[in-house]
Write a structure and sequence with these properties.
The complex is a heterodimer of chains A (about 110) and B (about 120). Chain A is mainly beta and about 110 residues long. Chain A has no helices and 11 strands. In chain A, strand 4 and strand 5 form a beta hairpin. Chain B has about 120 residues and is mainly beta. In chain B, the strands form 2 sheets. In chain B, strands 2, 4, 5, 6, 9, 10 and 11 form a 7-stranded mixed beta sheet that branches. Chain B has a 4-stranded antiparallel beta sheet with strand order 1-3-8-7, with no helix packed on it. The chains are: A mainly beta (about 110), B mainly beta (about 120). At the A-B interface, strand 5 and strand 10 of A face strand 5 of B.
Chain lengths: ~110, ~120
């Protein structure tokens, strides 16, 4: 299952609302997760099953979608949110990830 | 809180076998029904899932790497390992070990990653 993220990068300011999209090549119900990765670090799980917030993740992060189209929204961008975000499908093996969306400071 | 730590050579010659170990602390690798995975990231690129080994010892690999990959488990050392044969420069990547949340699909726990360069 191929996952296509858009945009591949974006520039935003602190306080902005940011939306990242992930499209699956076939329907995956709600079986999608989102991760945040900072340079030189391992990815951190943010959201799973499309909209369930992982423990300890700030409530400004939210996820939605089902089938083939999913979104990750950051309601008000915090300085620590500048990072690369990846989606991952949980529907079937082999597990696959999207190409990533880099969120940069404007 | 489970923690994972990768270890192994940072430089491997082409055609040789890449071998990495993931040491697990804060929990037993034999308990809980968890899936222990290897994931890699080519420099500046996205994430690629390599395969997993279940706590029972059953392994499953990505079809794209299946012919070259072996993942094994050493319960006495609380470790699991990755072996990737016949490496080329295309296998240069940061390799992560990770544990799922018992669903088999989601990764809340990751090692910090280790860079392996394939070069003569």
């Amino acid at each position: 299952i191929q996952l296509t993220q858009s945009p591949s990068s974006l520039s935003a300011s602190v306080g902005d609302r940011v939306t990242i999209t992930c499209r699956a090549s076939q329907g995956i119900s709600s079986y999608l997760a989102w991760y945040q990765q900072k340079p030189g670090k391992a990815p951190k799980l943010l959201i799973y099953t499309a909209s369930t917030l992982h423990s300890g993740v700030p409530s400004r992060f939210s996820g939605s979608g089902s089938g083939t189209d999913f979104t990750l929204t950051i309601s008000s961008l915090d300085p620590e949110d500048f990072a690369t975000y990846y989606c991952q499908q949980l529907n079937s093996y082999p597990l696959t990830f999207g190409g990533g969306t880099r969120v940069e400071i404007k | 809180q489970v923690q994972l730590q990768e270890s192994g050579p940072g430089l491997v010659k082409p055609s040789q076998t890449l071998s990495l170990t993931c040491t697990v602390s804060g929990g037993s690798i034999s308990s809980g029904g968890y899936y222990w995975s290897w994931i890699r990231q080519h420099p500046g690129k996205g994430l690629e899932w390599i395969g997993y080994i279940y706590f029972s010892g059953i392994a499953y690999y990505s079809p794209s790497l299946k012919s070259r990959v072996t993942i094994s488990i050493d319960r006495s050392k609380n470790q699991f390992s990755l072996s990737l044969s016949s490496v080329t420069a295309a296998d240069t990547a940061v390799y992560f070990c990770a544990r799922d949340d018992s669903s088999g699909y989601v990764f809340p726990y990751w090692g910090q990653g280790t860079l392996v360069t394939v070069s003569s």
